[in-house]
Structures are given as structure tokens and as C-alpha cells.
Amino acid sequence: MAAEQEFSLYKSQLRDLIRIGNVYYIAPRPDGARCDGLEFVSPDKQNCAVYCFRGSTSESSQMYRAVGQSPSAAYRVYFADHSQSDFASNGRQLMKLGVTIQLADAVTSQIAFLSIVHA
């Protein structure tokens, strides 16, 4: 993404989540090789951003179990760069089965957004 698009994404979807949301570390401590993951969840659990950072590992996908969702709520899951298909899930499934994030290249990142559809 171009810098202008990145700034727009930050201002429209990320700034408030990072500033006032709850943060969860959803992957082992980063070591430069494995994937790292952080989850930012709005206080009302309506919106969430899962950050995935791929290190030098050869694994091109990583599953992250969400931790801050409302179990009975329905969520829309979509990706910042639209490299993966959107899908729907409920909070219980996201916390149990997680979100699989694909990163084809080493030392790259992705953001998955989870937005509540209805509680």
C-alpha cells in the first residue's frame, strides 16, 4: 500500500483501537524467526484488529486465536490488503478456532479486522 493509504487506514480504523482498546499478545514472544501477533479490541468489543508479523520462518500461514470477542456475537472478518477472502464467524469460533493469516513472503505483515455484525 502507498503511504497515503496506510495513513488513511490508521486514521479511520486503527488509531482508536490502539489508543483506547485492550491489547492482547496472541503469539509467543517474538524472536525474529517465528510469527508474532497482537490483538487490539475496542472496549465495547465491537471492533478488533489482529496484527500478524512474519519473521524469517518458512511457514506461510499462522493461526491466531482471538481472545477479546463477545462469544455470542457475529463478526465479519476482513483483511487490510484484501489478499484473503472476507468471512463471517461468531466470537466463540474465533476464540476457539482462530483466524488463519496467510503471509507468502518472509518479514511481512498483515492486519485482520473483526467487526461485530450483531450481538
CATH topology: Immunoglobulin-like
Q: From N to C, what is the helix and strand string?
A: HEEEEEEHEE
- In the CATH hierarchy, the architecture is Sandwich
Uncertain residue ranges: none
Distance between the termini: 33 Å
Shape type: globular
Instruction: Write down the Rg.
Output: 14 Å
Q: Give the biggest sheet.
A: 6 strands, antiparallel
Please indicate the count of domains. Answer: 1
- Mean pLDDT over the residues: 92
The CATH class, by name, is: Mainly Beta
The fourth-level CATH homologous superfamily is: Golgi alpha-mannosidase II
Oligomerization state = single chain
Helix content: 10-25%
User: So how many helices?
Assistant: 2
Binned strand content: 35-45%
Walk me through what this model shows:
With 119 residues, the chain is α+β, with helices and mostly antiparallel strands. It has one domain (3-86, 93-118): Immunoglobulin-like. The chain is 20% helix and 38% strand. The protein has helices at 3-20, 91-96; strands at 22-25, 36-41, 47-53, 61-64, 74-79, 87-90, 99-102, 109-118. The strands form 2 sheets. It has a 6-stranded antiparallel sheet with strand order 1-2-3-8-5-6. The radius of gyration is 14 Å and the shape is globular. The N and C termini lie far apart (33 Å). The mean pLDDT is 92.
